[in-house]
Specification:
By secondary structure, this protein is an alpha+beta fold. It contains ten helices and 19 strands. It has three domains: 88 residues, Phosphorylase Kinase, domain 1, CATH 3.30.200; 163 residues, Transferase(Phosphotransferase), domain 1 (Orthogonal Bundle); 117 residues, no CATH class. Strand 1 and strand 2 form a beta hairpin. This is non-specific serine/threonine protein kinase.
Length: 438
């Protein structure tokens, strides 16, 4: 019999305490727990290894509250399945990928892709408020993630900085534990408040059902926290926060710069006047692009100067290339100090091996028009190299020493890694790569 250790939180089984380093717990005969990553209010996240597919995974252990009733246990399991199913249905680059759900030791465990990167909350706590240029990139990615979820009828209900992971230029929305699909039964008891008070929309705090527009409020509060270092209505305790949310005017951000109108539009208390997805995207892109000149005859040189100036400001403030503008210029301006640029090349989809396959860390060639590709350079100084869908016969080559890449349909792309061609997958299969040049 294994007894809980005094160091474990209440309700934890302590099952791992008596295990030696060589006897890690294995879930479903394939997922081996390696080490604890962190703990939250309702569980623990573990670093794990999928021994069947030989890949790293993140495993979320969900703990049931002590003395839980059988009815509440059923609700808990349903909410766990909902947390797993929501992102599994969406399958987009800006939403965490879920691989499996396992019931072991009387508790559910969610197996997800391993993203070794800080959350937005951790970044704010470590470095303070972020520059508007980087927050604009984060906001644009989260708008895309929410749009994908909302089109599928899924409302997240708990968007906040701790549920946003920043992996280089990749922005990932996680934790769909409170999400629900339209038409599904409610798993929230009457009178029970669900969500994070500092980021919840005022209509939800007042007892109304969450909607896509309440997710957009939470996005506005998250972007506010990113540029200011704290959410707009945060107070010393929950009741004071909810009181401020209900009774006080929304404060204007002081450090948002061109993002001010985006954030204030998302933080409109009346949901009917709140920015929609489309208006938020338009306003955000206008903010990134800078003010438009009303004079006719504005030269192309002037427009290019404005764009380059914005990019230089982004690099100086963030230390990374964080906007789509940088991606475009990277493709059109080959070569930079210490790294090779993305090289679009010719080629056909006839299966012929590229002449330079052995000299490149990664080559991708489209077998058909569904070859979608995302490539980024990892690390604090990294950037997105491409996020595009190739046409049949198009080819991309990458020579950076280290790369992260995602191929969204392995049946639509021919892929060479360090000169070795990858096996062709089945339609709809997604594959992620962390590459190092040999």
């Amino acid at each position: 019999m294994v007894l809980p250790s005094p160091g474990w939180p209440p309700g934890h089984s302590g099952i791992f305490c008596a295990m030696s380093q060589s006897e890690r717990f294995v879930l479903a005969t394939r997922y081996r727990l390696i080490s604890e990553i962190g703990q939250g209010a309702n569980g623990t996240v573990w670093r794990g290894h999928d021994e069947l597919l030989d890949r790293s995974v993140a495993i979320k252990e969900l703990r049931l509250p002590v003395n839980i009733s059988e009815d509440d246990r059923v609700v808990f399991y349903r909410r766990t399945l909902r947390e797993a199913r929501a992102p599994a249905q969406l399958r987009t680059h800006s939403i965490v990928e879920v691989y499996d759900v396992v019931i072991e030791q009387g508790r559910p465990w969610i197996v997800m892709e391993m993203i070794e990167a800080p959350s937005l909350e951790q970044l704010i706590e470590r470095s303070g408020p972020l520059p508007p240029e980087r927050v604009a990139h984060i906001g644009r990615a989260l708008l895309d993630a929410l749009n994908t979820a909302h089109k599928a009828g899924i409302v997240h209900r708990d968007l906040k900085p701790s549920n946003v992971i920043l992996d280089g230029d990749r922005v990932v929305l996680t934790d769909f534990g409170l999400a629900y699909s339209t038409g599904s039964a409610s798993l929230t008891k009457t009178g029970h408040f669900m969500g994070s008070p500092a980021y919840v929309a005022p209509e939800v705090a007042a007892g109304e059902r969450a909607t896509p527009r309440s997710d957009l409020w939470s996005l506005g509060a998250t972007l506010f926290a990113a540029v200011e270092g704290h959410p707009p209505f945060e107070r010393d305790n929950v009741m004071a926060t909810l009181s401020a949310l209900a009774n006080e005017s929304t404060p204007a951000p002081q450090h948002a710069g061109p993002l001010t109108s985006v954030i204030t539009g998302l933080l409109e208390k009346n949901p009917t006047r709140r920015l929609t997805h489309a208006r938020a995207v338009d306003r955000l892109e206008r903010a990134v692009a800078g003010p438009r000149s009303g004079r006719r005859g504005q030269t192309h040189r002037h427009r290019v100067t404005v764009v380059i100036g914005l990019i230089c400001a982004t690099v100086a403030a963030c230390g990374i290339g964080a906007t789509a503008l940088i991606v475009g210029m990277t493709r059109e301006t080959p070569g930079s100090a210490g790294a090779s640029a993305t090289q679009p090349t010719g080629g056909t989809a006839d299966g012929a091996v590229p002449d330079d396959a052995g000299s490149s860390i990664l080559i991708v060639r489209a077998r058909n028009d569904a070859c979608r590709l995302f490539v980024s350079v990892p690390g604090p100084g990294g950037s997105v190299l491409t996020n595009e869908t190739l046409h049949k016969g198009e080819q991309r080559r990458y020579d950076w020493p280290r790369l992260n890449a995602v191929v969204y349909d392995t049946s639509a792309c021919d892929v060479w890694v360090n000169g070795v061609q990858e096996a062709t997958g089945v339609p709809g299969e997604r594959k992620s790569y962390t590459l190092t040049k040999e």
